């Protein structure tokens, strides 16, 4: 376990180059090309982390100032994803999640129930968090491990189903996003997007990034949109002129730099993805396309994702103030809102309006979920020795405390056998459906050759 902890502790920017290099060599790519690909991916992740850190470091304090100015008095404090990660890895489920996750991925690949090779092992904590909540709610480690495993199976299938859209709209060729937080909102997005199709007038509204640029000219470009939104957030936070201008320039820079860093990462991934596809085609005749599973951070650079996310930050504070039943004070995790939206863009086909509407709904439902899970979340955090902020009666987070799948697993597993059977049926049903889809698509592709 110490070795696994050490590997996870290295972080994405160290582990990704190593994993990609080894993966490339195993696929038959030459040493030099594999090393270059690994380093390019590492540089991309360093760049993404720097820019996301810039976003969080500026957006977080501004949002907190807005919270203070509005004077919200909510009893559950959003302490951010570190508390969720601490709960996850401090649990028995967390100690076993990496070997469990690797076994599940291998079995799914072997049975043709997934197309994703999930190398995003540090984000297995999302599955561990679900398992830890279930174990805490039921008092059963076995049910917690079962929940973590089933959660991963569901997310892997969602990653496969959304991968073509991620390729088309996010430009991430050969990549899927088996991210336990981002992918959890996909089912909600599909249902709401379909409902919008049946609302007269609403179903005709089509606004995408290109439309914005055409209609507003230079002010529709990401750099100008980010700057304007940043200026407004700075004003809302009560900053002085220097602070307002600084916020504008920073957020304008973020909207430009994140896509460039993602492109750098893709420069390293493309040759490895191509090699993986060639390897599969040579040795297996029913595997279809293979995707490399990555952190959803690589996909947040889409201008629609970023623009809608920045608008939703102040809106989340307003929603928290007026939403009946909400007790959560949005705080530390406001900067992770882009991660909740990253997989919505392929579903809405880049429609800014629909992405915004779905975003408002998932934020609203997420706050209620976080409120509902807060007592358990707080208890698990105390058990993990996570410090509770002074003055807070309970804690929660937007990531993963507002995760609808974590909530569904926790509440259903409280029914024990009934809940476990239901979730097993859902997860295995999705896996079987995915297998049939993969085989059918592959047969069709072969017939076209």
Specify the structural class: mainly alpha
Strand order of the largest sheet: 5-1-6
Average pLDDT figure = 84
Which spans have pLDDT < 50 for at least 5 consecutive residues? none
Strand content: under 5%
N- to C-terminal distance: 48 Å
**SSE order:** HHHEHHEHHEHHHHEHEHHHEHH
Summed up, the domain count is 1
Question: Rg to the nearest angstrom?
Answer: 21 Å
Helix content: over 70%
**Tally of helical runs:** 17
Approximate shape: globular
Kindly state the number of beta strands. 6
Largest sheet: 3 strands, parallel
Question: Overview of this structure, please?
Answer:
With 449 residues, the protein is mostly helical. The protein has one domain. It is 70% helix and 4% strand. The longest helix is centred in the middle third of the chain and has 43 residues.
Provide a short characterization of the protein structure:
The chain is mainly alpha-helical and 449 residues long. The protein has one domain. The chain is built from 17 helices and six strands.
């Amino acid at each position: 376990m110490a070795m696994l902890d050490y590997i996870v502790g290295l972080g994405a920017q160290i582990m990704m180059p190593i994993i990609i290099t080894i993966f490339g060599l195993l696929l038959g790519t030459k040493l030099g090309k594999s090393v270059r690909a690994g380093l390019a991916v590492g540089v991309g992740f360093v760049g993404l982390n720097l820019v996301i850190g810039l976003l969080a470091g500026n957006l977080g304090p501004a949002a907190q100032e807005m919270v203070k100015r509005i004077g919200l008095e909510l009893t559950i404090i959003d302490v951010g994803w570190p508390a969720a990660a601490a709960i996850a890895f401090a649990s028995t489920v967390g100690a076993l999640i990496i070997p469990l996750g690797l076994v599940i991925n291998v079995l799914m690949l072997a049975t043709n129930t997934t197309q994703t090779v999930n190398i995003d092992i540090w984000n297995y904590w999302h599955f561990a968090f679900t398992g830890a909540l279930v174990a805490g709610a039921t008092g059963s480690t076995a049910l917690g491990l079962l929940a973590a495993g089933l959660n991963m199976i569901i997310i892997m299938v969602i990653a496969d189903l959304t991968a073509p859209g991620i390729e088309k709209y996010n430009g991430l060729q050969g990549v899927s996003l088996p991210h336990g937080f981002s992918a959890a909102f996909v089912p909600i997005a599909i249902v709401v997007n379909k409902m919008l199709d049946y609302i007269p007038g609403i179903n005709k509204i089509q606004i995408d990034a290109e439309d914005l640029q055409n209609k507003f000219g230079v002010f529709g470009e990401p750099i100008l949109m980010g700057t304007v939104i940043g200026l407004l957030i700075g004003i809302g936070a009560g900053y002085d002129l220097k602070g307002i201008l600084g916020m504008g320039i920073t957020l304008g820079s973020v909207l430009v730099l994140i896509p460039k860093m993602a492109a750098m990462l893709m420069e390293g991934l493309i040759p490895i993805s191509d090699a993986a596809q060639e390897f599969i085609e040579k040795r297996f005749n029913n595997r279809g396309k293979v995707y490399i599973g990555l952190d959803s951070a690589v996909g947040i650079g889409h201008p629609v994702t970023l623009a809608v996310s920045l608008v939703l930050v102040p809106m989340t504070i307003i929603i928290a103030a007026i939403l009946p039943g909400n007790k959560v004070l949005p705080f530390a995790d406001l900067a992770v809102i882009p991660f909740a939206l990253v997989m919505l863009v392929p579903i809405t086909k880049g429609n800014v309006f629909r992405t915004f509407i779905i975003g408002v709904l998932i934020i609203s439902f997420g706050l209620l979920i976080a409120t509902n899970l807060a007592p358990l979340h707080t208890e698990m955090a105390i058990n993990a020795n996570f410090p509770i902020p002074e003055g807070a009666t309970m804690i929660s987070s937007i990531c993963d405390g507002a995760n609808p799948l974590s909530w569904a697993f926790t509440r259903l597993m409280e029914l024990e056998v009934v809940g476990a059977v239901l979730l097993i049926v859902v997860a295995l049903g999705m896996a079987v459906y995915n297998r049939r889809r993969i085989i059918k698509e592959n047969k069709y592709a072969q017939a076209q050759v």
